[in-house]
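Subject: Interface between my chains keeps coming out wrong

I've been trying for a while to get a sensible model of this assembly. When I model each chain on its own everything looks fine, but I need the whole thing in one frame so I can look at the contacts. Pasting all components below, labels as-is. Any help appreciated, I'm running out of ideas.
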Amino acid sequence: MSNVTMTVNGKTVSGSVEGRTLLVEFIRNDLHLTGTHVGCDTSQCGACAIHVDGKLVKACTMFALEANGAEVSTIEGQANDDGSLNVIQQAFKDHHGLQCGFCTPGMVMAASALLKANPKPSELEIREHLEGNICRCTGYHNIVKAILAASGQDVSSIAAE
Amino acid sequence: MPKDSGIGAATRRREDARFLLGSGLYSDDISFLNQTYAVFVRSEVANGIIKTVDTSKAEKMPGVVTVFTGEDFVDVGGNPAGWLINSRNGEPMKEPKRPVLAHGKVRHVGDAYAAVIAETEQQARDAAEKINADIEELPAVIDMASALCGSNFVHNEIGTNQCYDWGWIEDNREATDNAIKNAHHVTTLELVNNRLVPNAMEPRCSIADYHSANDGYTLYTTSQNPHLTRLLISAFVLGIPENKLTVVSPDVGGGFGSKIYHYGEEALVLAAAKRIKRPVRWTATRSESFMTDAHGRDHVTKIELALDKDNNFLAFRTETMANVGAYLSNFSTVTPTILHGTLMAGNYAVPNVYVNVKTVFTNTAPVDAYRGAGRPEATYSLERVIDKAATELGLDPTNLRRQNFIKSDQFPYVTAAGLNYDVGDYDAVMDRLEHNADLKGFAKRRKKSEAKGKLRGLGINSYIEACGIAPSNLIGTLGARVGLYDAATIRVNATGNISVMVGAHSHGQGHETAFPQIVADLLGVDPRNVEIVHGDTSKIPFGMGTYGSRSLAVCGSAIVKGVEKIISKGKKIAAHMMETTHDKVDFDEGVFSVRGTNKTVSFGDVALKAYIPHDFPIEDIEPGLEETAFYDPQNFTYPAGAYACEVEVDPDTGQVTIESFTAADDFGNIINPMIVEGQVHGGLAQGIGQALLEGCVYDGDGQLISASYMDYTMPRAADLPSFIVDHTVRTPSTDNPLGVKGCGEAGAIGSPPTVVNAVVDALRSADHDITHIDMPLTPERVWAAMNN
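Reply #2:
Try treating it as a single job with all components included. I did that and got this:
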């Protein structure tokens, strides 16, 4: 067992982990931040997407020890300071961009990374950016629409509701 | 009550905030002090005799608490099939036992034969690797046709691989044969409905907690129907009295059918929790989901369509082999039969229908209902053979369908497949489709595609489906071993707000938003004052859960009946308060009034009075304002629609892209159009996935070679277009008080043939003499079809 320390959603946290403990396991089991989900074991589904040092990362692709000293941000750290939904989260709600909610935290984290890098993405750019995030419920239609809306763009070209 | 939030309003979902903030509570998010972890040891071969299972090394591994093998469950019951299907000769289906853990034989890759319980998941995993099993591998039974004529049996004790040989409707067989024999034209098509893996994004998870003090249990599990799961465990498998077992299904991350069924892992964690007197948890890896969640579809079918000289349909005759896998999952026997055969008249006024289904055991994972369940298989067969007939006869496929539609003035219409369609207007839906998809502009768009070297195709489809399977007294005669009603308890609290406990379970469908819209509308209260409680057998009445697009039509109707009882009792209380008789009291928009007077009393005051009954005539009125209603529908509901898809095919690579997808559906009355559209979008994605991307493949040895997201292609965002959907044609169901139909499965039912029709059309535009390609239409398959 080794000690690991990192900043998660602005708070310094530490723990004792095995070498094989994945970052997502540390986040869920040790920190009890269960908003980050595990949907596969091959790093394909994106339900565990978080930000590590500002970059979009699947938390199942890193060992917890690799994140020693890193700045980690999860879905629990995304709301506005008053606890209300941030712009992306609100857009997902307004445009019905989620159903069962299981892939949603990863989608929100992926969307947030996209909009930081590309504040006005096209529909195609959004679809391609979501290559690493699988949703089985929505057919992506309303996720794409929500991200477009969150970027302040007109969504009327995406069929009306 | 605000008019923008009742029935028909696109109310934003109240469940969203917790999911968006990361504070949802899925089963795997629950943990207990002192909990232990279960890891299953699963067969690596498809068929084998278990000679010995040596657990001695595993038991000595660090952290191991206990170990189970199939021996431990020899004396408990099997996981049963929920529907008895008889063969054409009257013999009942074969029902081999499905044990908690395999004993004597393993029958598919992933079949669990042992389980280790340890202090940590890693310790359990490490110990599981030390279990030394001597399993003699046998040749696998994989191909259905070979399975039916061979002597290698998945279950030796039944002496056959055929579960049943079912005919529907047997009395129609001769007339159908004659109609085909004497027809002007017969189109024949052989096709495969590809095997799929449901792939809810949340893997299955079960956690058992045993309470020594009262010999009771709580099971947290990813179920679409907690009461049904409890019943199966209690009455058939472990014999735990229902009153000693609470089943909780909290937030559930998608189901699509795969979480209807009781699985052995649930029984294992319960038995383990009792043995070690500690909580025991198990969460599937995605690999386990691929190997052990019930799969879907997997039919091999020959269908014939007979037409007269005027292109009127005379008969559909179908022969299908349906794969049931190694064991009977709970609804595996009804899915390829009742849910498939009864839909084989489609939207058409066809006088003769006959369906023969042989269901086959193989050394593969169990196959059961997956989004659509039998109805996608029916629609695919019908809508592909109709397109092929149009091609052979040189007819416009849309006009051929329209000519044979059941017309709007013919309802109610009893089809040749035995269903009574209550209402519909298929031409009106097709009109909407033709308009929205701009079918007239297709020729121009085809030219544009051709100019850039692509082949463009247009596919059209009509579908009908049957939702909210019912009534119980009818399905009982068809072999159902359960009733298919649902239930709701309306509890008006003393302060006037309302808790509604429902049998339906929401795992993405938005019940927490849509159900309050109904209650609020009927009672004239603010929907924010109505809360839905679901997913906990200790809190909700005995309902049958959510699947088959039944929640609104069946449970929603139970809510309506419950609210009617509340109003009826409320009138008695109001009459007492206003010193009149209840038959003189009216109720409207949250206010009770005495007819012909200006006397009124509010709903809230009546609620308060119900709980503070100081001056009640208690011989006439019981205190409290809480009512339960069970609702058993009179009939299925019959959503129907028409879909159009345009594809481009790259003639060099065979790559297919969806250029547009348009759906027009008739769902009857709509409670929340935003949720309805979301349901259609998701169904379309799954159907397009089936058509182009998804295929579950076992090799000849029974190895599952599509067992991860690297090998099984899930639809990604860039594989799909934005959809054009429409639900403006609304013929309200005449069989439930809300006039609603189901919308959850429509997209997955109607879209596969639409896509395949479009691809075939594209290829034919370049003079390829192709009338069919089996799904999924991968670039390889399309290229091969063009180049062979």
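Reply #3:
Confirming on my end. Chain B has 20 helices and 28 strands.
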